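Hi support team,

I've been running sequence recovery on a batch of backbones for a student project. Most finish fine, but this one hangs at about 90% for roughly twenty minutes before it completes. I'm not sure whether the input is malformed or the queue is just slow. I've pasted the structure tokens below so you can try to reproduce it. Let me know if you need the job ID as well.

Thanks,
M.K.
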């Protein structure tokens, strides 16, 4: 049976991994990834459109207008991007976050298993937790970079506006990343905490082994021969 210290440490690591899983699910499901204000105009009127959206859904509303008013519209992000390079990158962001969610689930499962068992030094032990957290960090960082590339370089919000409001031209756009995007930093912190807990466990186990060796190392030679 695992020692009390091991149970407590791996239980703590399980909780941080579970928290990371919950946060990744929230990141995928919420619509507060970015808010964009885009000035638009046509031959009859001008308007400022506010887009607030996540990876799957979003809403478009009119903030200021002169002339023809535009109704609030709800839209599916993926369907609006079909047939473009933005769709490919956006789909990769979703895929990487799903993989990150699976890595967090695996890490939580391994930590929970280690609280009730003493597995051999295989992927079921600390090495498996390290690997799952490393992949999780990798997928989260890739998701953040790819989404920022789609926003800043490929003008994701402008592309969405052009699909939703056709026959309009845009003049300028400003963007602000929402809490859903920045929650990915929290996932990185939780993964770091999980890894730190496992490192602390291995350090504690190493110190115990060293202490167990000392009586033999300093025992009298004649006593050892006897």
């Amino acid at each position: 049976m695992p020692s009390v210290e091991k149970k407590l440490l791996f239980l703590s690591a399980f909780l941080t991994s579970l928290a990371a899983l919950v946060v990744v699910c929230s990141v995928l499901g919420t619509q507060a990834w970015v808010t964009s204000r885009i000035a638009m105009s046509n031959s009859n009127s001008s308007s400022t459109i506010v887009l607030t959206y996540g990876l799957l859904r979003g809403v478009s509303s009119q903030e200021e207008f002169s002339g023809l008013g535009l109704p609030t519209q709800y839209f599916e992000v993926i369907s609006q991007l079909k047939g473009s390079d933005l769709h490919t990158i956006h789909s990769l962001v979703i895929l990487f976050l799903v993989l990150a969610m699976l890595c967090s689930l695996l890490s939580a499962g391994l930590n929970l298993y280690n609280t009730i068992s003493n597995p051999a030094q295989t992927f079921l032990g600390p090495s498996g937790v390290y690997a799952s957290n490393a992949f999780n960090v990798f997928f989260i960082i890739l998701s953040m970079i790819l989404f920022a590339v789609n926003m800043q370089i490929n003008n994701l919000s402008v592309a969405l506006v052009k699909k939703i409001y056709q026959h309009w031209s845009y003049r300028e756009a400003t963007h602000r990343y929402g809490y859903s995007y920045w929650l990915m930093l929290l996932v990185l912190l939780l993964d770091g905490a999980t890894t730190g807990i496992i490192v602390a466990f291995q350090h504690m186990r190493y110190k115990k082994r060293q202490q167990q060796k000392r009586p033999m190392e300093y025992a009298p030679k004649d006593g050892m021969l006897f």
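--
Follow-up from support: It reproduced on our side and the slowdown came from queue contention, not your input. Helices lie at 4-29, 77-81, 85-116, 126-152, 156-164, 179-217, 221-225. No action needed from you.
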